[in-house]
Design a protein that fits this description.
Chain lengths: 91, 261
């Protein structure tokens, strides 16, 4: 899965998991700071972490839990891409 | 009208609230979750119990002994004591001549499932259950990691609770003192469904079809899944949007009307 596809899927997940009825995935910019633009708090991040693990069939380790990595769609895309690359190497 | 009361147990007095309905033949017993989830979901469970009463059945909510308004210190809570408390509430309802339907939220759903199996309850409603106690424990740890990440920039290691339990024999989970015995029991808790009596799962979340924990648990125990597209009210008490959960509950309870017990 390419970076663009991952980013698009993450935007869809954010909209779905956070019940954003007034926002569409296209409204979210890759570099938007989600805490500022969407008011993403710990509950929201928890939902997104669980959603990303389920959607991409990956598992986040302790070292994933750094604030910078959940700052924007771009940073989350990077984390997921890295995890998926590790998964395909393990396979 | 709500009627708070106490049920005497060998562990101390258990606080309960009944939503009585004169002449009701069935009582739905609500088992709450633990930790911050119990506090967040307090109002939602009260409203769901009201929904049960408006559907023509009695309802009873309980605070396990050692939690909430019940007697005792939280550090003494065990999985066995929670199961015994649920059974004590069921005995209270049966003494009043009512049949039992067990209901529970999150970890309370697994308590309800096990209690229903032990007591041959007429039916069971599992609201947003984890697929197992191990999954519940993992999610609690995850929530801690995310909260720590937002306050200090970095999440606490996932083995932190276990390390604290090993060092001190107890740990602080969301402000609740948890014993090593309780934590280990939760992690290995995997209740099965009773042979008789139906089991329904209410999946609460954004998805419109069975997914994740609901799907895994439904497959393991052979339960039907009802969907409630609604935010997770047990982690976010400020926005209480539980109408879809209400509707799912009403639909499940309606299925018991006119059915022989």
């Amino acid at each position: 899965m390419g970076e663009t596809d991952i980013g698009r899927k993450i935007k869809e997940l954010v909209v779905e998991l956070l019940f954003l009825t007034d926002t569409s995935p296209e409204d979210i910019k890759d570099d938007d700071v989600l805490a500022d633009t969407l008011g993403m708090d710990s509950v929201a991040i928890f939902q997104i972490v669980a959603g990303l693990e389920e959607e991409f069939e990956i598992s986040f380790e302790d070292d994933t839990f750094e604030q910078e990595k959940f700052r924007s769609v771009a940073s989350m895309t990077e984390v997921v891409r890295y995890k998926l690359a590790g998964k395909s190497q393990d396979a | 009208m709500l009627e708070p009361f106490y049920i005497q147990t060998p562990r101390g007095r258990m606080y309960a609230v009944s939503h009585p309905l004169r002449g009701a033949r069935e009582c739905v017993l609500f088992c709450p979750s633990l930790f911050e989830e119990r506090r967040c979901a307090y109002r939602a469970l009260r409203e769901l119990a009201d929904e049960v009463a408006s559907a023509g059945k009695a309802a009873c909510r309980l605070d396990y002994v050692f939690t909430g308004e019940s007697e005792g210190e939280e550090g003494d809570l065990t999985l066995g004591s929670m199961l015994a408390d649920a059974e004590a509430a069921a005995s209270w309802a049966r003494e009043k001549g009512m049949e039992i339907l067990m209901a529970g939220l999150r970890l309370g759903a697994l308590i309800a499932l096990e209690t229903a199996r032990r007591l041959n309850a007429r039916g069971t409603v599992l609201i947003a259950p984890p697929s197992s106690g191990a999954e519940f424990a993992k999610e609690i740890i995850r929530q801690r990691q995310v909260r720590a990440m937002l306050t200090s920039g970095k999440g606490a290691p996932r083995g932190e609770v276990e390390a604290e339990l090993e060092r001190h024999g107890c740990a602080d989970v969301d402000g609740t003192k948890v014993s090593a015995e309780l934590w280990e029991a939760i992690r290995s808790f995997e209740p099965q469904a009773a042979e008789a009596g139906g089991v329904s799962i209410i999946q609460v979340g954004p998805r419109k079809s069975p997914t994740g924990a609901s799907a895994r648990l439904a497959e393991r125990i052979g339960a039907e899944v009802k969907i409630a597209v609604s935010p997770p009210f047990w982690v976010e008490s400020e926005k209480l949007e539980i109408d879809p959960v209400r509707e799912a509950l009403r639909s499940i309870l309606g299925g018991y009307d006119g059915r022989d017990g």
